[in-house]
């Protein structure tokens, strides 16, 4: 495979910029992560395109650039236009939300990102083609069929068939790692508003529990699945959400004044919370030992080894996923091993997606896995 830089003075570059600007006008955003560098992949023929870590765009010569002209076959042309729209949608939002307790810093968010971005792009491409002067074109075939199908089912679970599009509009505007929180907020509104109080602690804790239910192992790598397993993943996700919804109801039936004790989805914040809990315990032990000026410490027996409280393990530094990438690229999501967690504070960033602080809990989370994202591509 050859990688060729497209000259900014060339007609091919100018045509792409015009299409990119039309795509941006479909969903305006102050942020644009494309740096203006454009490359064509030649001789690869499997991946449609990617927004790279450095901000450059790579698009397939055979699958995209060759089908943007007026004489292209309609089905190939609509697939090429969907790719341009898809990559423009990636470039308009942030990836990270490291200070948000409900951010999901794992490959689950990569799968949802690709499924949601493709779902929105497929829904918008008819209007996009018309605005760009291509006229009527056939419907595109979605890339990422598994992630696309599971995402569509999740949107409909949360908002119903009539509300799925409006929910997708809200979710696509959120940072990639916070889109689960937007969907969880919709579920709380539609399925739990009769039991979960409006207070921010209650709301965030309920959302955290639903996020933990949604992010099952089956979502990891879903965007790379070679066979369509979207229906099976959707069914498993719905069952997990049904169970968590009932758990929340049971909790409020017994203790309506206390937020649900959910684990913090953001393992970085969960690690800080556990470290603070250990420090607090250590401080209280030291105060107890120093109370009473007449206490003869030298006469006390040595402490039992079983009474020691170990500090939390030191995790790896957080890496980052920075957009759409080709197979083999070294970009990835944050990774690390989260400890026991609690849904507590909030540093607001997203409006409906992040609205308060949750209740303390000590539920252990599994290890987050790194991911090597791939392009919008099909073999």
Beta-strand fraction estimate: 5-15%
Determine Rg (CA atoms, Å). Answer: 24 Å
The computed structural class is alpha+beta
Task: Please count the beta strands (DSSP E, at least 2 residues each).
Answer: 7
Describe this structure in words.
With about 375 residues, the chain is an alpha+beta fold. It contains eight helices and seven strands, in the order βαβββαααααααβββ. The strands form two sheets. The chain has a five-stranded mixed β-sheet with strand order 1-2-4-3-7, covered by helices on one side. A two-stranded antiparallel sheet has the order 5-6. Strand 3 (about 45-50) and strand 4 form a beta hairpin. Helix 6 packs antiparallel against helix 7. The longest helix is centred in the middle third of the chain and has 28 residues, at about 145-170. It is elongated and about 65 Å long.
Task: Identify the notable features of this structure and list them briefly.
alpha+beta, five-stranded mixed sheet, elongated, 7 strands, two-stranded antiparallel sheet, 379 residues
Outline the fold blueprint:
Blueprint: E1 2-5, H1 11-26, E2 38-42, E3 47-51, E4 57-60, H2 74-91, H3 107-131, H4 145-172, H5 179-191, H6 200-214, H7 230-254, H8 267-290, E5 340-341, E6 363-364, E7 376-377
Parallel strand pairs: 2-4
Antiparallel strand pairs: 1-2, 3-4, 3-7, 5-6
Helix pairs in contact: 1-2, 2-3, 3-4, 4-5, 4-7, 5-6, 6-7
